[in-house]
């Protein structure tokens, strides 16, 4: 062995030793050593904007002052990535926003402390929301707030087509017929974002599910097929167009620019309409019912508490304070989210009468797919849905089913 | 290299022998050299070599992303993460192979185009009599020093359906595509123009590594072409600078001699300038190749891999697998496969350029 390669080998060996040393350096931090008394909580949030950050910071400071703890709120730029890094480094934040679509990812690897059973008045949370944060029969965390999809209607275009308030569709058939009337007047009736986060509403209205409550994939059901076929029919007849084909980024943009008379979005559209398209007048209706009745999609986040946190009791007290009815109503006023507690419904409805359609969605809302490691499966499904106009709905669903089976079986 | 060092060291040995265990002059020089180099080497080891080895370890495990991957509780997986990428029929393999296909076409277009453009620009601004040389040098280099995020967003606006690019095209009577939502491969588009609308069953029915031959042969999608245009435009400035530095280093005597020999402008370029630029050409091609295979930020900002996965890049798939699916071992394995592809291609390119000389 030449001297050079010897030196190389020595460097490599040294590096390997250092690697091992580094490895042992950031291990440790077992979950059992709970500390009582004063706690310094780290709270990571995925904020929708300055208003939300300020409101959460203020609420956290208020809680900290009254309970004798400290609470630091960190707004994340990319919460998935930052949480992943924090958990890998064994120093996760004590409390964090956790999207329902990500619940199973974290719950399945034991990253979450399941405190559902110790929550104050847990049964007050909407049942559909509790279901969204239940993984394998355990309620893991307290729902923070929620949004549902509604049908937004451009009132000017509506009356231009000779339609009135009585024509607001409540069934698929009515939706098709008003869309045809709008199209006859040369308008694009419906625009939606080409994603399962909108289109799965039609699947749910046909009575289908992607993954059932037992966690098994059931994507290739006849109900789902019926839902997709209905959407395909709308697409083929030019009644529904994807926002991307209208040269817009999302359904709200197509709707705001009056490129379509209707769209399907959640209550976040109100902020966008107010700031970007203040002159467009519109109304919101619940999504029309399908053959299996009413259904809408529900998006929600919870207050996750990490299993590795050393301050479980204090973190739970913090979450209880954040999900109290008065606090939820304060958040609603500050940045327009719907409270997750049923007892806050009446007060919220009084404050925001325009949101009635979104609020009623809570009764028949369907949460996101509740299964671990399905992110790439769902983005594959999305890319299939963009081809729905020409593709075979059955093979799309079969592909989704087999990908889900592979992801969940392994 | 080792053969060059050894005789010299042997020559130094008799002198050192008299002074016992003390180092000879060369030994002391080597030690001093090592000492001077050690801060840089320490940084390399600490921030490059060790993380790489740690990532390699992760790629051999079934680590869930919880706590340290170097504890006894993390199950060892052997090479199964790598085997899954190539042998297991599933979404992971399809996504990764799709990304390899996309970036293969991307590299095939980006590297020659950016090298050619950079060389052309360098030759233009190198000419002594060219007017406004300094201005053009700065102008051509400008895209390279601008943030890729800012440029990507500007390109997003330019390439929207009703954007500037399509407005220019429509002035010539061409109806531009909806760039970033057009997933059609340009090979497929060209074939369709020649009347081949339905792909032959021989190509769709068979395939390798989870993609059918028809999919492998799709060519870059229209959306990918927009990204290719962006990358060629932004990177050629940097490479122009390298060519320019090399051009200014070329000995004037050789050029003068070729002038005396009666060589025309093209002959000078072909037989004098280009051969002397060979080392720079190798550097530019290698850097271009490596940079292109690793493309991430433009994809992350502009397309997230869409439409229909035609702009997925291996680096982006690795990121999405790691932080989207929380499947860090598979993500690390993808990164090492990408590393292997880059090393192999660089070696092949080196051999190719060398055998021609």
Set out the fold topology:
The complex is a heterodimer of chains A (410) and B (357).
Chain A: H1 3-25, E1 40-45, H2 50-67, E2 70-75, H3 79-88, E3 95-99, H4 103-108, H5 127-132, E4 134-135, E5 138-139, E6 142-148, E7 150-154, H6 155-160, H7 172-184, E8 190-192, H8 196-205, H9 222-236, E9 240-242, H10 251-256, E10 262-265, H11 269-276, E11 282-285, E12 296-305, H12 312-322, H13 325-335, E13 338-339, H14 345-351, H15 356-360, E14 365-366, H16 375-385, H17 393-409
Parallel strand pairs in A: 1-2, 1-3, 8-9, 8-10, 12-14
Antiparallel strand pairs in A: 3-12, 4-5, 6-12, 6-13, 7-10, 7-11
Chain B: H1 2-18, H2 25-59, H3 80-87, H4 91-126, H5 133-145, H6 148-158, H7 164-171, H8 186-193, H9 201-204, E1 207-208, E2 211-212, H10 213-216, H11 222-249, H12 252-260, H13 265-276, H14 278-293, H15 297-302, H16 314-324, H17 328-356
Antiparallel strand pairs in B: 1-2
Describe the structure.
- The complex is a heterodimer of chains A (410) and B (357).
- Chain A is of the alpha/beta class.
- Chain A has two domains: 176 residues, 3-Layer(aba) Sandwich (D-Maltodextrin-Binding Protein, domain 2); 174 residues, Periplasmic binding protein-like II (D-Maltodextrin-Binding Protein, domain 2).
- Chain A has 17 helices and 14 strands.
- About 3% of the residues of chain A have low confidence.
- Chain B is mainly α.
- Chain B has a domain of 225 residues: Orthogonal Bundle (MetI-like fold).
- Chain B has a two-stranded antiparallel ribbon with strand order 1-2.
- In chain B, strand 1 and strand 2 form a beta hairpin.
- In chain B, helix 14 packs antiparallel against helix 17.
- Chain B is globular.
- Chain B starts with a helix and ends with a helix.
- The N terminus of chain B is likely disordered.
- At the A-B interface, helix 1, helix 3, helix 16 and helix 17 of A face helix 1, helix 2, helix 4 and helix 16 of B.
């Amino acid at each position: 062995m030449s001297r050079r390669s010897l030196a190389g080998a020595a460097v490599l060996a040294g590096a390997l030793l250092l690697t091992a040393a580094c490895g042992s350096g950031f291990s440790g931090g077992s979950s059992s050593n709970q500390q009582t008394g004063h706690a310094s909580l780290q709270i990571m949030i995925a904020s929708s904007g300055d208003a939300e950050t300020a409101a959460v910071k203020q609420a956290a400071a208020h809680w900290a002052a009254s309970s004798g703890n400290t609470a630091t709120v960190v707004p994340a730029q990319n919460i998935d990535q930052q949480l992943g890094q924090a958990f890998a480094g064994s120093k996760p934040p004590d409390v964090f926003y956790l999207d329902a679509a990500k619940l199973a990812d974290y719950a399945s690897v034991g990253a979450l402390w399941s405190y559902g059973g110790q929550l104050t008045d847990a049964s007050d949370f909407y049942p559909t929301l509790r279901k969204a944060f239940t993984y394998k029969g355990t309620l893991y965390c307290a729902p923070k707030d929620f949004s549902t999809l509604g049908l937004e209607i451009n009132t000017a275009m509506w009356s231009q087509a000779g339609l009135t308030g009585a024509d607001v569709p409540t069934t698929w058939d009515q939706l098709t017929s008003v869309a045809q009337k709008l199209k006859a007047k040369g308008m694009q009736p419906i625009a939606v974002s080409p994603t399962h986060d909108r289109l799965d509403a039609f699947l749910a209205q046909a009575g289908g599910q992607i993954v059932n409550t037992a966690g098994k994939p059931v994507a290739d059901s006849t109900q789902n097929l019926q839902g997709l076929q209905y959407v395909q029919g709308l697409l083929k007849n030019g009644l529904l167009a994807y926002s991307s084909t209208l040269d817009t980024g999302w359904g709200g943009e197509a709707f705001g620019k009056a490129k379509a008379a209707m769209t399907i979005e959640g209550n976040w559209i109100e902020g966008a309409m107010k700031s970007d398209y203040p002159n467009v007048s519109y109304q919101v209706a619940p999504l029309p019912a399908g053959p299996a009745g009413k259904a809408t999609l529900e998006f929600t986040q919870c207050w996750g508490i990490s299993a590795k946190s050393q301050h479980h009791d204090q973190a739970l007290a913090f979450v209880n304070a954040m999900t109290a009815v008065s606090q939820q109503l304060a958040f609603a006023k500050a940045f327009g989210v719907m409270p997750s507690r049923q007892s806050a419904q009446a007060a919220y409805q009084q404050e925001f009468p325009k949101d009635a359609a979104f609020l009623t969605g809570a009764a028949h809302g369907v949460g996101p797919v509740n299964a671990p490691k399905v992110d790439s499966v769902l983005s594959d499904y999305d890319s299939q849905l963009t081809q729905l106009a020409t593709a075979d709905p059955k093979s799309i669903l079969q592909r989704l089913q087999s990908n889900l089976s592979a992801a969940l079986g392994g | 290299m080792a053969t060059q060092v050894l005789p010299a060291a042997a020559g130094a040995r008799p002198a050192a022998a008299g002074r016992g265990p003390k180092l000879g002059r060369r030994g002391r020089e080597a030690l001093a050299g090592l000492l001077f180099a050690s801060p840089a080497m320490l940084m390399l080891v600490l921030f490059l070599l060790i993380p790489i080895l740690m990532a390699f370890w992760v790629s051999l495990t079934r680590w869930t992303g919880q706590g340290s991957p170097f504890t006894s509780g993390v199950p060892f997986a052997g090479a199964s993460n790598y085997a899954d990428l190539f042998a297991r029929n599933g979404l992971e393999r399809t996504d990764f192979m799709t990304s390899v296909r996309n970036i293969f076409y991307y590299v095939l277009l980006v590297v020659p185009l950016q090298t050619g453009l950079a060389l052309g620009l360098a030759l233009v601004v190198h000419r002594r009599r060219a007017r406004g040389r300094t201005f053009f040098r700065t102008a051509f280099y400008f895209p390279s020093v601008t943030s890729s995020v800012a440029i990507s967003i500007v390109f997003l606006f330019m390439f929207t359906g009703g954007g500037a690019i399509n407005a220019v095209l429509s002035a010539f009577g061409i109806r531009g595509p909806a760039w970033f939502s057009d997933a059609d491969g340009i090979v497929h588009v060209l074939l369709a123009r020649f009347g081949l609308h339905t792909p032959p069953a021989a190509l769709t029915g068979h395939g390798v590594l989870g993609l059918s031959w028809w999919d492998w042969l799709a060519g870059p999608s229209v959306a990918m072409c927009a990204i290719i245009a962006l990358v060629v435009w932004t990177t050629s400035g940097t490479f122009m600078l390298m060519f320019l530095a090399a051009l200014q280093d070329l000995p004037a005597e050789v050029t003068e001699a070729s002038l005396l020999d009666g060589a025309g402008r093209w002959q000078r370029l072909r037989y004098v300038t280009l051969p002397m630029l060979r080392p720079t050409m190798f550097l530019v091609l290698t850097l271009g190749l490596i940079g292109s295979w690793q493309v991430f930020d433009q994809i992350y900002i502009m397309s997230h891999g869409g439409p229909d996965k035609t702009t997925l890049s291996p680096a982006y798939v690795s990121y999405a697998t790691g932080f989207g699916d929380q499947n860090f071992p598979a993500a690390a394995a993808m990164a090492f496969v990408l590393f292997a592809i880059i090393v192999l291609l660089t070696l092949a390119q080196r051999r190719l350029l060398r055998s021609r000389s």
